Amino acid sequence: MDISDSPEESTFRVTVRQFIEDNLHSLVSSRGASADNVDTLKHAQSVLYSGGLVGVTWPKEYGGAGGTVVQQLIINEELDRAQAPRLIGWMGVGLCGPAIITHGTGEQKSRYLTNILTGEEIWCQLFSEPGAGSDLAAVATKAVPTEDGWVLRGQKVWNTGAHWSDYGVALARTGSPEDRHRGLTAFVVDMSAPGVTVRPLREMTGHAAFNEVFLEDVELPANAVLGEVGQGWAVALTMLMNERFVVGGDGSTYGAGPGALTSEVRKALPQLSESSRELVLQEYAACWIEALACRMTGNRLISRVSQGGEPGPEGSVGKLALGALLKRVGSLGLSLQGETAVFAAAPDGTNHWQNVAMFAPGLSLAGGTPEVMKNILGERILGLPPEPRVTASPALTTSPTASRDGA
Amino acid sequence: MKFSLSDDQIEFGKVAGQAFAKRSGLEYARGALDDSDLPFPTGEPWASLGVMELLADESRGGGGTVLDLVVVAEQSGKHLTPARLVSFAGRAVTLLEALGSPEAVTLLEAGLNGGRTVAVADSTRDSADRLRLDPSGAVHGRTAPVLDGVAATDLIVLAETDTGPVVVAVEVTSSSPAVRRVDPKPLDATRGLAVFEFRGAAAHVLSAGASVVPAWDRAKNVALVLLAAEDLGAATQANELARAYALTRQSFNRQIGSFQAVKHALVEAYVGEEQLRSLVWLAAWSADAQPESLRLYAASAAAYAADVLNRSAQTLIHTHGGVGFTWEHDAHLYWRRAQVDKELLGSAGSHRRTVASLNLDLELTP
Ligand SMILES: Cc1cc2nc3c(=O)[nH]c(=O)nc-3n(C[C@H](O)[C@H](O)[C@H](O)COP(=O)(O)OP(=O)(O)OC[C@H]3O[C@@H](n4cnc5c(N)ncnc54)[C@H](O)[C@@H]3O)c2cc1C
Predict the structure, then answer these.
(1) Is residue A347 predicted with pLDDT exceeding 60?
(2) Strand A210-221 relative to strand A149-157: parallel, antiparallel, unpaired?
(3) Which of A87, A136, A404, B350 is the most exposed place for a label (fewest CB within 10 A)?
């Protein structure tokens, strides 16, 4: 076991750090994506791409570097260290692109993949619906075949970045509802196509990063099908597995990194009474240790994947733990701010801990709730019996684990 | 980055697991609750595995790493084997090798060949009772509960003098009134805990000078990592026993493991286990490869281990319902281990203080 960088990794880290240092001004101009800094962030992504910092693990033929997951980890760590905002195209790079690589046609690969990496085209995930969240196989959006393609009708919701996206991967029903996950097909949706309406939803953070998406008789060409007709669940699984890995195991800390917490505690200590000082130190250390454990468990997973494994259900360990940690860290960060914590953040949104605390519940929910993660781990890793399914319809009983929990 | 055990280590773990299963500590743990005169085991099965000398110099048959020993400790923890691994193979061997004086080496060799049972004792937390060496070479004060104390023939202690701390050895088998051993009925007999009071006990100096404190601290931190590794093993086993029961026990015509309240509790215990495994391996790796980080990572692993084992033992009992609360079932043996371990070699709270003070550059007394 050697947890430190190998000589090659260490050289790589130096290069990455240097590149970020030299180009930092264009990257840290903004902490996160919002409707009015999309162009800046797209530019930042193209700059990072030119330095080999986007999609390093992607095969060379699709514009990647054919590098290792450990290199991706190093890039994430260095971006985190520089407090750079998350890639605006992270869903394309982390979720949709890999699905196209695995399930797409040659034509789809050459049309879409490079632009995903450069940030030229942004992608989103059009899975959830008002009636299909955890129970993703209840998707009701319908895709009806036409002479030369398909027509899409339905409504999606909670779609991160849909309002600045050029394309989305939608899950739609092409079979009967009783077929559950076996009657679904994945489509590439051009977000500028007639009939697509995107309405931003304001989140509890105050920002609008996700949306409702209405699909009213949206015409799609035949080559918009991603994977096989009726095999949309396989595409969904590829994306969900990658999502859990990207959210829980890839070294990103969503502002809960020990560094920011440490400086906040250091600042607050002189003002604290003797008794609250001890409580704060205990809670600070507990958060710090948990954050270390999250990072190290992620690194173990990455190390395993780099030796030839796939990101599997273990990614759910990280997503579960990180979701819980973010809430705890956000709450500690806020409590350290004393009186100012109870007033809304300054208009420039600079109150880091309010942002962390307000974002934390979202991280737990996105990509599968804690209950869904626990079902996955309980059933896939611990081998515990699945939940009994409702037996109202005979078809349901033959569909063993048809829910977002990734059967 | 290669963050996984080697094939050799995995194999070594398997062999150790079989040896510990054959002489499971569970029988001793249970036996000692009923019969307090049951002799405390100090030789087997560690000796047959050749792990006692693992951290010793190659000339003494050692040359292994802390991570190698952690692999064994996880297995010994799984079977609730008594404490020799932590107290001797981990702590005493590391300390005596680091001191390196002829006196230290003599004691080390006597410990390795089974002639003496050597244990390491910390001062009590109470400053009035702290261990002191007087100018005539006699020790005064009281120890914290000592791992393996009930069987020890020799204790190594860090004693204060007017000119700084020294490491001394005290023979504790003599009938001298200057040494009093107090070993009340233990909560978990497998730790062999006893407290010693010294009133002018004869001591011989093993080492003095500036290097004794770093040597002492390193050995204690190595012991902490091994204790956390034993907790990891105990938690893993508790989780496995709970899982197995959740698959067999039926209620309302269903396996209880299909109820989310049960399933999710088992998953939370499992997540804790995986997180702890990462911290234990990190700490062991640092002991071997990055000693300047050992204190921080050892304290992190130890604090986390206390919580994780507690939760796993609790989940084990809870999953079993009423039968889990009986004397006959093994669940309480894991619960006992959890209650005792979180107080050994410093409390979880004191480890968190260490983590906070190292990260914040504070001067905190642990
Ligand atoms: C910040 C954020 C970003 C998101 N981004 C996207 C996106 O880009 N694209 C997209 O398609 N979706 C996105 N989502 C949607 C997300 O995947 C869903 O919100 C999530 O899967 C939960 O579904 P739901 O909201 O319908 O809740 P529900 O499924 O209705 O769940 C409600 C409650 O019931 C519990 N519950 C449900 N089923 C079970 C069960 N079997 N056992 C126990 N408890 C259960 C849940 O855990 C939850 O507590 C996003 C969500 C958030 C919060």
Answers:
(1) no
(2) antiparallel
(3) B350
CA dihedral B345, B349, B350, B353 (to 10 degrees): 150
DSSP for A214-229 reads: EEEEEEEEGGGEES-T
A130 lines ligand 1 (CB under 6 A): no
Residue from B224, B267, B273, B364 to probe the interface with A (highest A Cβ count within 10 Å): B267
Contact in structure between B54 and B68 (CB atoms under 8 Å): yes
Token pair 């304001």 is found at: A202
- Locate tokens 């050995």: which residue? B219
Which atom of ligand 1 is least distant from the CA of A126? 11
Q: What is the ipTM of this complex?
A: 0.94
- Please state the atom number of ligand 1 nearest to the C-alpha of residue A124: 8
Is position A243 annotated as part of the catalytic site? yes
pLDDT at A396 over 80: no
| Whole-number average pLDDT of chain B | 94
C-alpha dihedral (B183, B184, B189, B192), degrees to nearest 10: -10
For residue A319 the two structure tokens come to 């997503």
Digit-coded pLDDT (tens) for A38-63: 999 999 999 999 999 999 999 999 99
Q: Report chain A residues whose CB lies below 8 A from the CB of B355.
A: 285, 288-289
8 Å CB contact between B130 and B124: yes
Residue A250's pLDDT band, with cuts at 50, 70 and 90, is low
**3-class secondary structure, A121:** coil
Dist CA B38 CA B187 (whole Å): 15
A231-234, long-range: CB within 8 Å, 24+ apart, which pairs? Answer: A231/A103, A231/A185, A231/A186, A232/A171, A232/A172, A232/A174, A232/A184, A232/A185, A232/A186, A233/A137, A233/A181, A233/A182, A233/A184, A234/A103
Residues A143 and A185 sit within 8 Å (Cβ to Cβ): yes
A299–B3 CB contact, under 8 Å: yes
Cross-strand bridge partners of residue A220: A150
CB contact B270 to A (< 8 Å): yes
| pLDDT recorded at residue B365 | 61
- Residue A402 or residue B300, greater confidence: B300
Residue A37 pLDDT = 85
Closest-CA distance, A347 to chain B, in angstroms, reads 31
The answer for B 236-265 residues in CB contact with A (under 8 A) is: 243, 246-247, 254-255, 257-258, 260, 263-264
Of B263, B303, B352, the CB nearest to A378: B263
Supply the pLDDT for residue B41. Answer: 81
